[in-house]
């Protein structure tokens, strides 16, 4: 029997480069301030080193070989004022190994200033996406509140990668 080619291009890394090291991928459209999020994550003190990769696209080009990242945790970032950002996150899900969606990925929803009432994306579609892919969701402003979002994100990464001693279920974090 011939093997069926997989649509999954981003497979979960099964080994560790070294102890106390985490590779984090922050993915979202170009207009979202992902760089500021990554800078605030690196400024926070942790018991482990965080290597951060920022990406705008996860789609392999048709004429090139599929690529693979060595990533321990994926952070999808969507802007609630841009429909394109959630569409790109949703479209990229089919290129990712399903093992990431077992507590190895989260969704950060950026709420820009002055956009508290006029959302381009309905909250129901965000909740539907998070529920379908088992994603923890963090709502926040990446321009002014990047430190709070970074702290919550690092807490999720710490538990998912096994650095938090006596770490309970990550669903308990939503209560804090």
UniProtKB/TrEMBL annotation:
Matching entries from InterPro entries are given as: Centromere_Cenp-M, P-loop_NTPase
* Keywords assigned: Centromere, Chromosome, Nucleus
Protein localization: Chromosome, Centromere; Nucleus
Q: Which GO CC annotations does the UniProt entry carry?
A: chromosome, centromeric region; nucleus
The main location is nucleus
Q: Report TM segments.
A: none
Which protein, by its recorded name, is this?
A: Centromere protein M
């Amino acid at each position: 029997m011939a093997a069926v080619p997989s649509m999954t291009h981003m497979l979960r890394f099964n080994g560790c480069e070294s102890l106390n090291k985490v590779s984090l991928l922050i993915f979202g459209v170009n207009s979202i301030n992902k760089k500021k999020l990554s800078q605030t994550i690196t400024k926070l003190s942790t018991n482990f080193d965080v290597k951060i990769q920022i990406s705008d696209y996860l789609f392999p080009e048709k004429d090139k070989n599929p690529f693979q990242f060595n990533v321990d945790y994926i952070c999808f970032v969507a802007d609630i004022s841009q429909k394109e950002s959630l569409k790109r996150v949703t479209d990229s899900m089919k290129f990712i190994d399903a093992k990431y969606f077992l507590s190895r990925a989260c969704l950060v929803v950026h709420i820009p200033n002055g956009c508290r009432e006029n959302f381009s994306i309905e909250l129901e579609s965000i909740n539907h996406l998070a529920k379908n892919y088992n994603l923890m969701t963090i709502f926040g402003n990446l321009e002014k509140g990047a430190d709070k979002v970074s702290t919550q994100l690092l807490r999720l990464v710490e538990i998912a990668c096994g650095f938090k001693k006596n770490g309970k279920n990550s669903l308990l974090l939503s209560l804090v």
